[in-house]
C-alpha cells in the first residue's frame, strides 16, 4: 500500500481545539524559533523587511553645527561687515575677528567663531553696506548630536522597515540595512467547484481567495510571485501531495484554502501525514474560522517550512490568516508578537459560548470606538471589505456596549501607520 493510500485509510482522531490566544502564542513561538536568516539590503530595496539588528548612526546628528534659518552668521557686536557667504555643502572659513559676518543659508555649516545667527528678516543694511540688527535670544542653529550621538541605538531590531525608517537610515550615513530575509509564501487553492473567472453558475462558485490571499500575505511582509499561486488543485490525494510537495520546495510558508475538514474530498490532513508533517495547531476554538491548522515540516536541508490550512469559506479563511499566519510571520521575521489595540464597543456583539468570537468591526479612530458591520457570514466578504479589523470577544463572555475589547487590525501596506 502506498504512503498516500495508507494516509487516506488511517482513522481520523479529532483533537480538542486549542484556545485562540494559546494558538497565537504557540505559532509565534515556533515562528521565532525558525526566524529567517539576516541579509543585507540596499536602502532602496529594504522597504517591508524587518531590521535584524538595531539601527545606529555612524556620526552625530547633525554632524556639525547647522544653521536652521537663512540669515547672517555674526561675530561680536554689530553692525557687521560682510566678508563672504556660506551655502549648504561647503566648509566655511572661521570668523577670525569681531565685527564681521557671512551670509548663511539654511542647512549650511556654521563657521567657527560665530556668536549668533541673525535672521534675514530681522536684518537691515546700512548706507555703508554693513549688516545691522539684533539676533534673537534662542540659538538659530542645531548643535552636533542634538538628534543623536554617534553609535547611539535609534531603532531596535525587529522593527518593520518603512519609508520613515529608510529616511532615518540615510541620514545616519547608512547605505544598506541588515534585515531578515522576507518569507517566501505560496498558495494552493483546493476545490473542483471553483471558477477562476466569470460569474458563479451551474453549482460552481468563483474563487475569491486565490486573488486575495497573496495580497494579504504581502501586507504581512511576504514575497509572493504569481507563479506561487496554484489551483484549483484537483480533489484527489495524489494531486494534493504533488502540489504541496512542489510548493514546499521554494516556500517558507504554504497556505492552502479548503480541505481542512475530514470529508470525502478533504485531503489536507492525509497529505500532511504523507509528507511527514507535525501539527503546531490543529483546530482553534474560534468562530468564524473553524477549522484551521498550522503544520510544520523539516526539509532535507534542515530548514523548517510551514503549512497553514485556511478554511474554504472566504471570511473564515481571513480569520485564520489573522489568527495563525500573522503571528507566525511575525516570529519568522523576528518581529515582536503583535500587541492588539483596544477599542470600546459602540454596539453589542454576541459571544460564541466556549469559542472566541472574532467580529468584524469598523473603527472610529477619533472616538476610539468599534462598530459591528453587516454581512459577516463565514462565506461573505462584503462586511470584510468595509471593516478595519476584528473585535475579540473572549470565550464565555458577551460584548456589551461600552466594553473595552482587543481588536485584531487588518494588515496594512508596508509604511502605513496603524491606528
Automatic annotation (TrEMBL):
It catalyses: adenylyl-molybdopterin + molybdate = Mo-molybdopterin + AMP + H(+). Keywords: Magnesium, Metal-binding, Molybdenum, Molybdenum cofactor biosynthesis, Transferase. SUPFAM superfamilies: MoeA C-terminal domain-like, MoeA N-terminal region -like, Molybdenum cofactor biosynthesis proteins. One of its GO terms (cellular component) is cytosol. It is an enzyme of class 2 (transferase). Pathway: Cofactor biosynthesis; molybdopterin biosynthesis. GO terms for biological process: Mo-molybdopterin cofactor biosynthetic process. Its cofactor is Mg(2+). Pfam families: MoCF_biosynth, MoeA_C, MoeA_N. Signal peptide: none annotated. SMART domains: MoCF_biosynth (SM00852). One of its GO terms (molecular function) is metal ion binding. Its EC number is 2.10.1.1. Residues 186-331 form the MoaB/Mog domain. Belongs to the MoeA family. Catalyzes the insertion of molybdate into adenylated molybdopterin with the concomitant release of AMP. This is Molybdopterin molybdenumtransferase. It comes from Micromonospora sp. CCTCC AA 2012012.
